[in-house]
Amino acid sequence: MIYEEFKHLKEVKDNNNPFSAHYFIDDADFYIEPVFYTQLKGFKDRHPIESYNRIIERIIEVAKKNKKVVFVGNFEYPQTEVDDSYIFLEITDITDPLKIFVEDKSRGSDYGD
Q1: In whole angstroms, how far apart are CA 6 and each of 25, 31, 37, 74, 91?
Q2: Single pTM value for the model
Q3: Interval 84-107 mean pLDDT
Q4: What is the spatial distance between Cα 7 and Cα 11, in angstroms, rounded to a whole number?
Q5: E strand or H helix at 11
Q6: Residue 66, Cβ neighbours under 10 Å: how many?
Q7: N or C terminus of the chain with fewer C-beta within 10 Å?
Q8: What span, in angstroms and rounded, lies between the C-alpha atoms of 113 and 1?
Q9: Partners of 28 in the beta sheet?
C-alpha cells in the first residue's frame, strides 16, 4: 500500500498487519491504518496545502521522537496488532497541537418520528 506522502520512506510489508502501511525512518518505525489515512486525506481536502504539509511533517517528527507509533483511526479499536512498545495516536493527536481543525457540522435529522 503506497501512500504518496510517505513514498520516500522505506516500507516493509507486515504479514501480521496486512491492512496497515508499515514505514521505517532512521531508527523509528510506524504504521498508518487505512482509517487514519482517510482522515488525513480529509484534512487535505479542507485545508491549504501548507497546513497539510505541516501535518505530514508532524507525523514524521512524532514517529522519529517516539520510535514506535501506530497512527490509528480509533485508539479504542485499533486494527493493527503490535507489542506494548508502540504508542497509538489518532489524527487529532497530530492536528490539534498544530491548531488545524475540522469543524464537525453534522447534526441530527430535522425529521421526528
Answers
A1: 10, 11, 11, 21, 16
A2: 0.89
A3: 89
A4: 8
A5: strand 10-11
A6: 14
A7: C
A8: 44
A9: 25
* Burial label, 104 (beta-carbon count in 10 A; 0-12, 13-18, 19+): exposed
The answer to whether 32 touches 23, Cβ cutoff 8 Å, is: yes
Write the secondary structure of 20-89 as one string of H (helix), E (strand) and C (coil): CEEEEECCEEEEECHHHHHHHHHHHHHCCHHHHHHHHHHHHHHHHHHCEEEECCCCCCCCCCCCCCCEEE
pLDDT tens for 58-68 read 999 999 999 99
Residue with cell 489518532: 90
Q: Which amino acid, residue 31?
A: Y
* pLDDT tens track for 42-86: 999 999 999 999 999 999 999 999 999 999 999 999 999 999 999
